[in-house]
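One-letter codes give the sequence; the fold follows as tokens. An example follows:
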Amino acid sequence: MQEPSNIAAGLTASAALRSAVTDLGVDWQHRPLQPEPGLAALLAQTALDEGAKATVVQALGAGLIDVCIAHGYQSMDLVVLHPDTPGLEETLARFDRPHTHADDEVRYIVDGAGLFGFFDAQGREHTVRVGPGDYLRVPAGAEHRFTLTAERRIKALRLFTDSAGWVAQYTAREAGPMAVDA
């Protein structure tokens, strides 16, 4: 895996958006994906069974050892969402409600695309489109939300310090549909 860059390839994020997200404490990098052919074929599949997910985590997780050591992440898994995911609408409804976490939320996107919305102190939402190779570390306490793009599919490694995994503390903020910032 190549060294991460602070400029996400392929994204049209403005300097103002990058600055706003960085000012909120979000670590947003691009860590290029260059999987070997067998792994690339696996990532191209819509759905993955538990064995295939474990293969992806093992193959790509080693490339994140630097952040695991730096931030004390003890475990990782692979979340796979696609139109045929059971309970997809309920899952997305939970992710799309503005929330915070007591722990960092870390995502390394390995396939598909999604939208993260981050709220600043003035209540403005800054929306970031993420795709393969994008790495986000959202600090504990940062108010945010997530949804899928129109393609409705994503695969992302998730890193955790706590074995409880993804635990949201929902805020009372009302929020409409996300739109990507310029």
Notes: Residues 2 and 120 are 32 Å apart (CA to CA).
